[in-house]
Write a structure and sequence with these properties.
The protein has about 375 residues and is of the alpha/beta class. Helices cover about 40% and strands about 15% of the residues.
Amino acid sequence: MFGEVALINRASKRGAFSGDLLTRSSRRLLAVASLLGLMATAACGSDTTAAPAPAGSPTAGGAVPAEALVVYSGRNENLIGPLLELFTEETGIEATPRYGDSAELAAQLLEEGDRTPASVFLSQDAGALGALEDAGRLETLDDADLDLVAPEFRSSEGQWVGVSGRARVLVYNPELVAEADLPDSVFDLTEPAYRGKVAFAPTNASFQAFVTGMRVTAGEERTREFLTAFQANEPQAYEKNGLIVDAVAAGEIPFGLTNHYYLYEKAAEAGGIEAFTARNHFFGGGDPGALINVAGVGVLDGKGDERSQAFVDFLLGETAQSYFAQETYEYPLTSGVETAAEGAPALDAIEGPDVDLSDLDSLAETLALLDEVGLT
């Protein structure tokens, strides 16, 4: 797998894809390289596990009703199954899902091409959508839908739109760390004061998306310098983000790099934020440590019709936006719906890096860099 990525990346560096315009074939090859990297990430680890496909779904090989909307979902069945039921209740349109890892589904969509039974793709992250966009596999969405979401959380080409957001944070234990002593930047975590005191999940997709965001905004060399110094500062590796929050709350380690919503999920289980011994620190000033990534939706090329339009409308409507906010403590991306994360700052108050989220599809390069510095 990594060999295929390297071959395509070397071809790109040699100029095989140079010029102002890429052919559809070249764009597809670059998208494949990105998706191979994304798939490698999925194989390494994730905080979510794809649920088995229900009988009758495209995954299970069952018959699909001719009138059904086929949804490829990179978000798991436990979360999306009830949401699809709400969609059917509101619209009368039956939805037939195929569940899997976002990168694997995106790669499958590239393989299927025009033969795909899918009409829409609901992705866990923007990178997989960006890869499909680069390959010319998504339609342009209606302005009415795009205008519901801030420009930074949708495709600059209008071919996908975010439906929920999650911010990178530094979770910390307030019994071990005074708020006044929190770092101003994620780059500060390479200082001696943080030696051996920071937890991270190196094989998790969210950490690798954060590194990709740093590469895109701060540059390859600055990111390499950070990762090299971070690795030398003896960070503590954990398998999953949820385990990081547990460890910080238990006082096993003072700090952890994670996504914002894990804290609120754990706090809700404990009876509220005041009953839980951990807090989120949001970096500011456009710091790479404050990256805001999104789950999003795109309509497959040639599949734009009333059913797929209704699905996009539904995901951006009050029912779905409230569902994401209350079930996962993510940020709703349309106005009028508030996050259920107790004490979290408003989304527009987070000063994240200025990044085109479609560019998070360059994960193959991130994986190579992490391997180079010994953080895999």
